[in-house]
Sequence to fold (370 residues):
Amino acid sequence: MADTPEVAAAHAGALPTDHPAHRMSASPYLRAARCQPTERVPVWFQRQAGRSLPEYRALRGEGSILDAIADPATAAEITLQPVRRYGVDAAVLFSDIVVPAAAVGFGIDVVPGVGPVAAEPLRSRADLDRLPVLDAEAHTPYVLETVRLLAAELDVPLVGFAGAPFTVASYLIEGRPSRQHEITKALMHTDAALWHDLMERLAAIAVASMRSQVLAGASALQLFDSWAGTLSPADYAAFVAPHSKRVFDELADLGVPRAHFGVGTGELLDQMAQVGADVVGVDWRVPLSAARQRVGAGVALQGNLDPVLCLAGWSAVRTAADRILAEGTQQPGYIFNLGHGVLPATDPAVLEQLTDYVHAYEPTYAGQHE
Ligand code: CP3
Fold:
């Protein structure tokens, strides 16, 4: 069942032998991410560490989420809360996709109930000066300290992450959450040179951030391109894919699974796999069997329960979970998750029951498990 030390080392690249990725090598999450069969289906929830948990609200208080993230003891505890409560197969670092941009001094905060807000959005080449490349040890030592605390504590893999260049760019350019991304698309189409320079800078920041998280003890990575689904396939190919590809390429040597997530990305799933992802996130708009065709062989899938169904009670969740589990486990390489993040109004009891339900399911390929 467990990999030999040689196989584990090959999967975890050049990481030191005491890195958690070696110890966790046979965990259901890491095996599924490598398209290996597992005895049970691994499950975790995007935004599992957050507002739906009363223990989160109690610990978090009223201040900016960036302050909670900057306190390693608090951030580590918030990361552990859902792991303890639900028994999920992966922990996701409590941080945010705007943390690197905030840490290098761009001038961006996360406003409760709104999301990321920049007082002076990026509109010209001069604004690039507010976005120096991240030196993770110098700019975000608290993130690395949180990862180190978690690496010592966790017995499931820690998923480190970064925002993808496009999604982070959209916040920096719009200055606040946007439905249409009109200023972002205008910049992309009217000043391609500035656009590509900005994307290169954000790709370098994402690489520096994720690399440092793995070296500090994260065993997997996820690139969040949450709003990529707003783009046509042609614009994604021309303006986004080369930069996201660079992010995946520059992390390949670490040997940890790299997941790629977005919402409304049904028509982009092929490209999102082709940039080099090991795992592709799927939302509820695309059946997993169709997603499988689009990403091709050798890429694992993650998803794709509609988070809104979790507000409709257990019976709705179970019906959807039955279908998703049947589709997802047609072949090895499937991680159960929601198609987007846990909604704040979600009853934690539903996610607790869902975790148990997924764990009780016996995948048809279980017999292939060596
Ligand atoms: O549990 C986890 O998934 C780990 C922590 C995490 C957070 N943000 C904490 C957070 C992760 C992985 C993120 C990523 C993130 N942040 C994304 C990509 C994932 C996605 O949901 O598509 C995006 C787009 C952001 C930007 C962002 N941060 C938004 C849109 C918001 C919501 C604003 C609101 O209050 O409604 C945030 C704030 C945020 N980040 C919260 C949490 C737990 C909630 C607010 C808080 O507690 O202050």
